[in-house]
Amino acid sequence: MEWYTQKEAADLLGVTKSTVYHYAKQGKIKKIHDPHRLYKEVRYEKNEIDILVSERKKQPTGLRPSEVAKHLGLSVQSILKYIQNGVIKAEAVPFGDERTSYIITENAFLEAKEILQPRAFDRIRKGEYFHTTYDIGLFQHFQSPLVQTARITKNDLTLDWGFSLPLSQKWIPYEEGIHKYKLKPVYFIHQESIPVKGYIYLQIPYTAEILYPFIDYLYRIWGVENIGIRELEQFILITLKAGERQFENIPFTVTDLLPFIKEGTLELIDGQLVVRSAYRKTNLELPINMLEIIKQLAEDEDLTISQWIERELNNAINKEVNYNSITKAKL
To answer: What is the residue-wise DSSP string for 133-197?
Structure first.
């Protein structure tokens, strides 16, 4: 045959069918005209596809910026910024007409992951626990007449969003859960946003019985606007804005939560869960030129100015404490 179907071309090039369509619009490949519609599928010149495939094979192998963004829970724009300022090593490759994309090798990705992957108490990004397009939250509870319990989770390998079905012990993609199993959310996950006056941090092991009931309570009563959820190796990190919300007819007590608090306090007052941050707001006056430098350094690491200053102060304090300890030991 002297042609490929659109699907065959897409499979050979490792792109979507819509991308093949745009390649033809850009003149990179030639579409075979079929005015009498003798063929059911769109066809493209075999020779031009083969040349493009050959050129692709000469390019470096690795991950695209979008794939790295997905793995690290960052936006594609952030990944491109890190490539441009040298934080992520990448090789430029041609893409479309007069455009350039990037390929990140496996070693470069592992280096970037070490630098950029969120640590336990780094700011939790909303994209880590909330899928904007699907309007779903991590570990959110779904059910249907066919499935008693399903939880929103991410695939361990692809990081695609879908459902864990505890009873059958399998994972299914989101679209399959919605259309085949007719899964629907048990509760609404949005509430009015609370002004930021600090946060409380809790670390709850995956095996703790209180984990899912607490997450269900947070989504229903506090909403995705006022919480943060991060998956870590042995536990779930949960942040909650300082404030207060209803805490009645809940299948656990505040006392049950206390062992898991790492920072801040929880208290039950007149049927309200009162959340208080361990932080106290303070004013810090700095020279304007220093503030501009700190602002840029914080942005480069995707931190707030407060987070950057706190980290640097902690480093300085720890060094001083260690120095004093060593000095006293010598004396």
So the answer is: TTTEETT-EEE-SS-S-EEEEE-TTT--EEEEETTTTEEEEHHHHHHTS--EESS----PPPPP-
pLDDT per residue over 185-201, tens digit each? 999 999 999 998 889 99
Q: Which of 121-125, 259-263, 295-299 has the lowest mean pLDDT?
A: 121-125
What does the chain come to in residues? 331
Same domain? 11 vs 54? yes
Q: Count how many domains the chain has.
A: 5
Assess contact for 112 and 82: CB atoms under 8 A: yes
DSSP state letters, 116-130: HSPPTTSPPPHHHHE
Output the six-digit token pair for 171.
Answer: 């994972």
Exposure letters 159-179 (e unless 16+ CB within 10 A, then b): eebbbbbeeeeebbebeebbe
Q: Is residue 245 part of a domain?
A: yes
Average pLDDT value over all residues in the chain: 85
Estimate to the nearest angstrom the gap between the alpha carbon of 186 and the chain centroid: 23
User: Same domain for 215 and 159?
Assistant: no
Task: List the CATH number of the domain containing 21.
Answer: 1.10.1660
Asked whether residue 130 is domain-assigned, the answer is no
- Of 190, 238, 244, 194, nearest to 213 (Cα)? 238
- The reply to whether 191 falls in a domain is no
Residue 175 lies in a domain: yes
By residue range, what is the domain housing residue 31? Answer: 3-58
**Amino acid residing at 9:** A
Helix (H) or strand (E) holding 76: helix 76-84
The per-residue pLDDT for range 99-111, each reduced to its tens digit, is 667 888 888 888 8
pLDDT, tens digit (0-9, with 9 covering 90-100), for 202-259: 999 999 999 999 999 999 999 999 999 998 878 999 999 999 999 999 999 999 999 9
CA distance 89 to 39: 45
Measured distance between the N- and C-terminal CA atoms of the chain, rounded to whole angstroms: 87
